[in-house]
């Protein structure tokens, strides 16, 4: 490895690296946000209680089967294969010419949604059943119970997993180079090919990926601590004056005297 070549590559190609990193972050952020919304929606639908009989039971079973197929397919196949099938397959079989960026956002979003739906479902199941029963006792339906009681707790509980999915998406966007999306990996291949210095170019890219993932991880952990709040709470209107041990001892001496 030549330090001089690393410096030279950075000097001559820094705008390309930055454009690639910017595209990687853009696709990762939008894809994770949309995927999380998909996961929340799918997770809520899959936890709707199925009645014993009637049309509602049939409809829910059909919907659950469709959602299960969606989850298992996108969790069970690599994103690089999904990208090839969706982008090139839609053009070949459906005659639809999808914009590369739109295709990339769609692929990352639905892939993330499949993983997040299981994370959300697990978060909902982890909530104590007594809270569901209490909500039902005061007349809340499933949607009201989710919006007012369950989901606020679930969102907090799944925040670390959501952050982990975001970090994974930052790295996994590199597979989108197969549909010629100009993310960081694609730009690095161009730089390396122009200079015939593959090791130095990809070493720079390795550092850039690490900076992005490390920064995102630190920000998310700080956000988690902010949501948790302080470790000790004082109830409003019920503040108690805590006396020091020496004050208590002095009062005891005064009483005895």
TrEMBL record:
One of its GO terms (molecular function) is transmembrane transporter activity. Its main location: membrane. Pfam families: BPD_transp_1. Signal peptide: none annotated. The chain crosses the membrane at residues 21-45, 65-89, 101-120, 198-217. It is found in: Cell membrane. Residues 21-220 form the ABC transmembrane type-1 domain. The keyword Cell membrane applies. GO terms for biological process: amino acid transport. It is a multi-pass membrane protein. It comes from the Bacteria. CDD domains: TM_PBP2. GO terms for cellular component: ATP-binding cassette (ABC) transporter complex. Keywords: Amino-acid transport, Cell membrane, Membrane, Transmembrane, Transmembrane helix, Transport. Gene3D superfamilies: MetI-like. Belongs to the binding-protein-dependent transport system permease family. HisMQ subfamily. This is Polar amino acid ABC transporter inner membrane subunit. It comes from Clostridium sartagoforme AAU1.
